[in-house]
Design brief:
transmembrane, single chain, 74% helix, DUF8044, mainly alpha, transmembrane helix, membrane
């Protein structure tokens, strides 16, 4: 059964992601990469805002793997963008 804190976390993350889609749509810059990066930022913020003070539940300890995967995806997006900016003669592939 879901705890109150877990549902608070899920609601916060879903609200952040919906607000991200709406904001990016209104700005006319909705893309998968921007949505991913903004959602990752939201995940980090919601994780910190809903962190318990005394006891860490088991489901929160598994969040570190999700955050680690998100940071790896962010690194991939950054490297891809850097490769796009560099001139073709700098990048060997």
């Amino acid at each position: 059964m879901a705890t109150r804190r877990r549902m608070q976390f899920v609601r916060g993350q879903v609200a952040w992601m919906v607000a991200t889609v709406l904001a990016l749509s209104l700005l006319g810059s909705l893309s998968y990469e921007l949505f991913f990066v903004c959602s990752l930022i939201g995940l980090l913020i919601v994780t910190e805002l809903t962190a318990p003070f005394n006891v860490t539940p088991e489901w929160r300890s598994r969040l570190k793997w999700l955050i680690l995967a998100g940071l790896a995806g962010f690194a991939y997006v950054v490297v891809r963008r850097i490769v796009e900016i560099l001139p073709p003669e700098v990048v060997p592939w």
